[in-house]
Specification:
The chain is mainly β. The protein has helices at 2-16, 25-28, and strands at residues 33-35, 53-56, 63-66, 71-84, 89-102, 108-112, 117-125, 128-141, 144-158, 166-177, 184-193, 198-200. It has one domain (2-200). Strand 8 (128-141) and strand 9 (144-158) form a beta hairpin.
């Protein structure tokens, strides 16, 4: 069963990686590594490679899903494990959403329903990377029961020598199922690591 899951994740990662077709060939020659220390070398020492990543939205910058029914979540968390080093680095994990409601104040529940959420991180320059994501969420609020899928969600990330933020803006997520659900919504999400992390090779 685990082998089947790993094959499934690898295939999914290959699909999401298509978002990086336009990346520079020079950068594509180096693996992307998330490092725990600001090494003087551009290479991350093996013992400093992260074993897991933990990102969160900050107070005052909720996650937003904008459509004819606008939803905000006060806190969005992502906990992930590197699946494999590479070009890009593949991280699989899970999102959790709390404090969600519509702009009018109606309570909502947002739940990840995909087996795994995938993030692919490709170093473009020192402390800069391109990020792509994939996953499905169930949004329940104001009588709606809607499943949305994000494929190849494109964003940008900076290491802790920069802003430290991973930002996804104006990215479309499409309806998978549900009645009276907006066909397309746009995701806005800014997350920060819970510890200092550096983008290296």
């Amino acid at each position: 069963m685990r082998l089947i899951k790993m094959f499934g994740l690898a295939a999914l990662a290959a699909v999401v990686a298509m978002a990086f077709v336009g990346a520079s060939s020079a950068m594509a020659e180096e693996d992307t590594v998330i490092c725990l220390e600001d090494s003087e070398s551009l290479k991350c020492p093996e013992e400093q490679e992260v074993e897991h990543v933990h990102f969160s939205t900050l107070e005052g910058t909720p996650g937003l899903l904008l459509s004819s029914v606008n939803v905000l979540c006060k806190e969005v968390l992502f906990l992930g494990l590197p699946l494999e080093l590479g070009k890009p680095l593949v991280v699989h994990g899970h999102f959790t959403y709390t404090g969600c409601h519509t702009f009018s104040g109606s309570g909502c529940t947002v739940t990840e329903v995909s087996t795994d959420a995938l993030l692919l991180i490709l170093k473009l320059a020192l402390e800069e990377a391109e990020v792509a994501g994939h996953g499905e969420v169930l949004v329940e609020c104001a009588g709606l029961h809607c499943v949305y899928k994000g494929e190849g969600l494109a964003g940008e990330a900076q290491g802790s020598l920069g802003s430290g933020a991973t930002v996804i803006e104006e990215q479309e997520v499409k309806k998978v199922s549900g009645l009276l659900c907006p066909k397309v919504s746009k995701l806005h999400l800014t997350m920060h690591p819970l510890e200092k992390l550096y983008i290296r090779s």
